[in-house]
Design a protein that fits this description.
Chain lengths: 241, 187
């Protein structure tokens, strides 16, 4: 299959339909964009072999408990225990297999274990807030963690971030790399969160919100949430041999 | 077709999970051809960006990517060389990798591309990653022929993608905005 995709230097690239739904670089309501968004137009570039290849992580970088953020210390963290699971798919709905997913988040009180976070909410000695896993042959992944709290930030007066978990995805190529955030259904803070609202298409915004999954909720133990993530698809479906 | 998941900023607290230990070192210090690749990320006010993540992706010294879609068996793979590196910037906005100069890889029309390294930049205030490329100062002929570099019409803008040799290291500064702004690509 590989040679079908790259034969004679002719490369089948990835579709760029995410450009229609991704946030703009400059979104003034999110103040940090004002000094960090490039001012010159970005240069459109064809995908070459360099962009349709990309980092390949193996299972050797993943420990048995890396996906379970509630078991990284001697005791359990405080908070509402949750299971976050779903599938990593490409733009044609096909599973992205054996692909690294990384997450990080605040604790139940909305505090990150990070020197830069001075929110006066307690750190939890039993919660670090980072996890990683690989998708299986069906593109499925699962994390066990606690529901992160909302927290204040300095963007504007009385600004609060909606509850969220940071997600880092690789997919098969340099061109499919994605870093995003997963939000929780019904969060009353959405209306004033400029990071969430920087995605202008309401339907695309909804795709950053997980859904409650009673089928994955475990009796007397944890609430289930479902979150499917969709990366770019290929420009043309390669012919199978 | 499935509807895509949008991008969001990596935020200032990425260090809780990434990068992993050793990810800025693509080769061991005693590797023949090991070079330090370093630089600084600055914002539109010239201030260092101390919460960025810089990622690099490159072919090995022979010009082969460690990826199943690069199946050119006449170009050797190198044991242990993944071609991928990550480095979080320090309090002065600096990053540093230890790597090798990549060999040329095929480009559009099966003409070789000049040796280059693909770069992603993530940071608080960047709602999407920024993508650029590092080219090499000792490759002026290949750079002049390179299909991607040639997309940039303005000479000064093109120059922002050529690393500089400095004290035996390759220096590549990334200016997100303003004077000397790095040229970024839509990929």
């Amino acid at each position: 299959m590989a040679s079908e995709l790259t034969r004679n230097g002719r490369v089948i690239g990835y579709r760029r339909d995410d450009l229609e739904i991704n946030p703009p670089y400059l979104y003034p309501d999110y103040v940090s964009t004002q000094t960090r968004a490039p001012k010159r137009p970005l240069v459109p570039m064809p995908h070459t072999l360099s962009e349709v290849t990309g980092p390949v992580y193996g299972h050797e970088r993943i420990g048995d408990l890396d996906h379970d953020l509630t078991r990284h210390h001697d005791d359990e963290p405080i908070g509402e225990r949750i299971i976050v699971h779903g599938r990593l798919l490409d733009g044609d709905g096909r599973p992205v297999r054996n692909s690294l997913i990384e997450i990080w988040q605040a604790n139940a009180g909305g505090r990150y274990r990070h020197h830069g976070d001075q929110h006066p909410s307690p750190l939890d000695p039993n919660f670090s807030g980072g996890g990683r896993t690989m998708t299986d042959d069906d593109g499925h992944y699962e994390f066990i963690t606690i529901k992160p709290g909302a927290y204040p930030w300095q963007n504007n007066p009385n600004a609060w971030r909606s509850r969220h978990i940071h997600f880092s995805l690789f997919g098969p190529a340099f061109a499919t790399r994605l870093v995003t955030q997963m939000f929780f259904p019904g969060d009353p803070l959405f209306f004033q969160d400029p990071i969430f609202n920087s995605v202008r298409d309401p339907k695309a915004r909804e795709r950053m919100i997980c859904s409650y999954d009673h089928g994955r909720t475990v009796e007397e133990w944890a609430l289930g949430y479902r979150y499917d993530i969709v990366l770019r698809g290929r420009e043309a479906t390669p012919m199978e041999d | 077709m499935a509807a895509l998941t949008p991008s969001q900023t990596i935020g200032p607290f990425l260090h809780i999970e990434v990068p992993y230990e050793g990810e800025a070192r693509l080769v061991e210090p005693n590797h023949p051809g090991a070079i330090r690749l370093l630089g600084m990320v600055t914002d539109g006010e010239g201030e260092p960006v101390d919460d960025a993540l810089v990622e690099i992706w490159q072919a090995n010294a022979a010009g082969r990517y460690a990826h199943p879609e690069d199946d050119r068996e006449d170009v050797p793979l190198e044991d242990g060389f993944t071609g991928f590196g990550r480095c979080a910037t320090d309090s002065e906005g600096r990053f540093e990798f230890l790597t090798v100069k990549p060999g040329p890889v095929p480009g559009p029309g099966d003409r070789p591309q000049a040796p280059h390294i693909d770069v992603s930049v993530f940071a608080r205030g960047l709602l999407n990653r920024l993508v650029t490329r590092i080219y090499f100062p000792d490759e002026s002929e290949a750079n002049a022929e390179d299909a991607v570099l040639s997309l940039i019409e303005d000479e000064a803008a093109r120059q922002t993608l050529i690393a500089q040799l400095e004290d035996g290291a390759l220096r590549f500064d990334i200016r997100l905005q303003g004077d000397g702004e790095t040229t970024f690509f839509v990929i």
